[in-house]
Amino acid sequence: xxxxxVGKYFxxxxxxxxxxxxxxGVFDNKQKAIEQCEDENYFIAPAELNQVLSKKSIIWPGCxxxxxx
Length: 69
What we know:
Elements: E1 2-13, E2 17-27, H1 30-35, E3 42-48
Antiparallel strand pairs: 1-2, 1-3
């Protein structure tokens, strides 16, 4: 089953710059996920239920920022 993850990328600055993202939800279709995006820092990405994407750090296949297009 394909699901869509919604997250928001952010950077914090203190003594070092930290790049991270916040989880905002999981949706059963792409359009519902896109509708949650409020600005260009929100991204959506596909995920298959009960499947590991990778055990290594990789660029998330299919991840993109809908409001940056």
